[in-house]
Design a protein that fits this description.
CATH class of the largest domain: Mainly Alpha
Structural class: mainly alpha
Distance between the termini: 14 Å
Strand order of the largest sheet: 1-2
Number of strands: 4
Largest sheet: 2 strands, antiparallel
Helix content: 55-70%
CATH superfamily of the largest domain: Fumarase/aspartase (Central domain)
Order of helices and strands: HHHHHHHHEEHHHHEHHEHHHHH
């Protein structure tokens, strides 16, 4: 067993940087080029260990390292995973990144066996596989949260499908709507986002390992074997394209969560308005409201305001990746280092936002009486005009006639919902069972992807 990093007392020489040729690097240059990688790479320890477990297994099967070395490496990687999960593994600034820290730990504990792990591999393809594993797992986290939120919205729509309230355009009352229509509409938007998340997951289902620095290596690597071990169903074949595509696949994932973030922001905005005393349609659950340090009466909807703001943060993550990756020639450039942090920030943030909105929606209380009494007679103007159309009046004449009626004293508002809306997808025909079926199919796809990926990663850790 390798002792944990905290107890090893590794010196800078013992944890030599993988590119070090013996010439000292200016400390300010080191700090500038490393940046925050040594901090943010803590999120990639598991992924880096899994990638190395697969790589070392393939090297052994190809006769490039011995079975004894493979067993020692695998044992060291499992010890590293255990130390990380116990909070006992750290990455120091002078180690630069997760790759150097883990390899240094293996070399310190295993000697030459640890030095053989990097055979046929570059940090370029190593970080690519780490990032893709991270993104695939976190996209599934977001997809699961999105599915739960959409389900909560559909439950709300079913409970309140006949609760009339004002529908708005331009923040002005437009036509009668129902809470059911509103909630089911947001659910369908989240469902569309869920499709985008799963599409992004599939786009990331290409294994980059074995491409090295973008040119391949003069060794008989079995790239398809490492892909299989890591749960990838496809190989990203061209070695140069692996490096040139860095940023593109990250942007794909961030675009999917940015679209989700926009829908979450819209939902949060609605709830901010509808829960205000001036509207009063909904009451937020007490477990998501905060307070004021000076005004005792305040119950602040911080969770909604932060969701609205964090939608912009998600978009900024996407913008950072696009602005870095979209200005480079082909092959690898150090600029790509700056595409990693936005992904590691954006995907967990998207899940947290989605979970917060699910908790909020589940606890909403609808004031049905307030919803109905706030519905102004003018909101029924379009219905009155279409009534006249069905009596044979041309629409433009009916439109003008209803305008005159409004100026003379309003319109009747006591019509039943079945008369107000009949078209598919309207308040009178929400097709909730269809929506539930679509959501169930997407949830099943998500669960299948999770099961397949987790099975591969568990098998890697358990492999002798």
């Amino acid at each position: 067993m390798i002792p944990c990093a905290a107890s090893q007392g590794r010196t800078v020489a013992q944890a030599q940087r993988l590119w070090d040729k013996g010439e000292a690097l200016d400390p300010e240059v080191l700090a500038y080029t490393v940046g925050e990688d040594y901090r943010i790479d803590r999120l990639l320890v598991e992924e880096d260990c899994w990638g190395s477990l697969a790589h070392s297994q393939m090297l052994m099967e190809q006769g490039l390292i011995s079975a004894d070395d493979r067993a020692a490496i695998a044992g060291g990687l499992r010890d590293t995973l255990a130390a990380h999960r116990a909070g006992e593994f750290e990455i120091r600034p002078e180690e630069e990144d997760v790759h150097t820290a883990i390899e240094g730990r293996l070399v310190s504990g295993l000697g030459d066996a640890g030095r053989r792990l990097h055979t046929g591999r570059s940090r370029n393809d190593q970080v690519q596989v780490d990032v893709r594993l991270f993104a695939r797992r976190r996209l599934l986290d977001v997809a699961e949260a999105a599915s739960a939120l959409a389900s909560a919205l559909l439950e709300l729509a079913e409970r309140e499908q006949e609760t009339l309230f004002p529908g708005y355009t331009h923040l002005r009352q437009a036509m009668p709507a129902t809470i059911g229509l509103w909630a089911a509409g947001h659910a369908e938007g989240i469902e569309e986002d869920l499709e985008s998340l799963l599409d992004a997951y599939r786009a990331l289902d290409r294994c980059p390992l074995g491409s090295a620095a973008g040119f391949g290596v003069p060794l008989p690597l079995n790239r398809r074997r490492t892909a299989e071990l890591l749960g990838f169903t496809r190989l990203q074949v061209n070695a140069q394209n692996v490096q040139t595509s860095r940023g593109k696949l990250e942007a794909n994932a961030l675009f999917a969560v940015t679209l989700l973030g926009q829908d979450l922001s819209s939902l949060a905005w609605d709830l901010l308005l509808y829960s205000s005393p001036e509207f009063g349609f909904v009451h937020l659950p007490g477990n998501v409201a905060t307070g004021s340090s000076i005004m005792p009466q305040k119950r602040n909807p911080d969770v909604l305001e932060l969701t609205r703001a964090n939608a912009a943060v998600l978009q900024s993550c996407l913008d950072r990746v696009l602005m870095v990756a979209g200005r480079l020639p082909s092959s690898y450039h150090r600029d790509y280092q700056l595409t990693k942090a936005p992904l590691l920030e954006g995907l967990p943030l998207a899940r947290a936002m989605t979970r917060a909105m699910e908790l909020t929606v589940k606890g909403l209380r609808i004031d049905r009486e307030r919803c109905r009494e706030q519905l102004a007679p003018e909101a029924f103007a379009t219905h009155r005009a279409l009534d006249l159309v069905q009596e044979g009046v041309p629409f433009r004449e009916a439109y003008r006639k209803v305008g005159l009626e409004l100026s003379e004293g309003g319109l009747p508002t006591d019509r039943p919902l079945a008369e107000l809306y009949q078209s598919e997808g309207s308040a009178g025909d929400l097709r909730l069972e269809d929506a539930k079926a679509r959501l169930a199919a997407l949830a099943e796809r998500t669960a299948a992807a999770r099961g397949a990926l987790d099975a591969c990663l568990v098998a890697l850790e358990e492999q002798p």
